[in-house]
Amino acid sequence: MNPEHSYPGRLIVVEGIDGSGKSTQIELLQNYLRLKGYGVLLNVWNSSPEISPIIRKAKKKQTLTPYAFSLLHAADFSYRYTHEILPALKAGKVVLSDRYIYTAVARDCARGIPKDWLVSNFRFAIRPDLTFFFRVDPAVSYDRITQTREIKYYEAGMDMEFSTNPRESYILFQSKVLAEYEVLAKENGFHLIDGAHSMDETQKSMRKAVNPVLSGIG
């Protein structure tokens, strides 16, 4: 159980497998909140200036073990949490996080790492004020992604050797990730978003859920 926080800002998180629509929606939410006059920080997974370049280089070599993959992303999160997320919350801003600790737990559990070990690595991280869980079928998310780019090696879980076919491997791996998300959603009270709904319908639902959370800011 991660601790609740008493900072003047708010932490709002989007989670879900790749291609679920969460990144597009959190950017729309960011624009909405800024228009309403809130100070907003959008924080993105695997984006720290110190660790992210190391992760990108390691992924290109395709030699990361599940534990190495996990620890590198944990280091990236720790940096962003300390240097970006917490300072913004202390300053009274709304932090929108495109993925949070639940991404690490879901993905790494799907790679066979014990959940207790993963959870213990993120005990320091506060509980978000609101977490949206975008649920979408892995086959649908694959088709969405491949309309604009190729599936990445680790994204498809090719390192797990479920299949030599990228599409089949992606669906098998992301199905395991999705199953872990379902457990986390029940344990942590995520706000469910149907990834099959229209963009406008989804954004309207998110704004309705966010507004009460922001009461008292400013």
For the record, the CATH architecture stands as: 3-Layer(aba) Sandwich
User: How much beta, percentage-wise?
Assistant: 5-15%
CATH class: Alpha Beta
| Whole-angstrom Rg | 17 Å
The order of strands across the largest sheet is: 2-3-1-4-5
Gap from first CA to last CA: 29 Å
Number of extended strands: 5
Integer tally of domains: 1
**Can you give the mean pLDDT?**
96
Percent helix = 40-55%
Can you offer a commentary on this structure?
Helix 1 crosses helix 8 and helix 4 (101-110) crosses helix 7 (166-188). The chain has a single domain, classed as Rossmann fold (3-Layer(aba) Sandwich), CATH 3.40.50.300. The protein is an alpha/beta fold and 218 residues long. Strands 2-3-1-4-5 form a 5-stranded parallel sheet, with helices on both faces. It has helices at 22-35, 52-61, 66-90, 101-110, 115-121, 138-145, 166-188, 199-213, and strands at residues 10-16, 40-44, 94-98, 130-135, 191-194. The protein is globular and about 50 Å long. Helices cover 51% and strands 12% of the residues. InterPro entries: P-loop_NTPase, Thymidylate_kin-like_dom, Thymidylate_kinase. Keywords: ATP-binding, Kinase, Nucleotide biosynthesis, Nucleotide-binding, Transferase. Phosphorylation of dTMP to form dTDP in both de novo and salvage pathways of dTTP synthesis. This is Thymidylate kinase. ATP binds at residues 16-23.
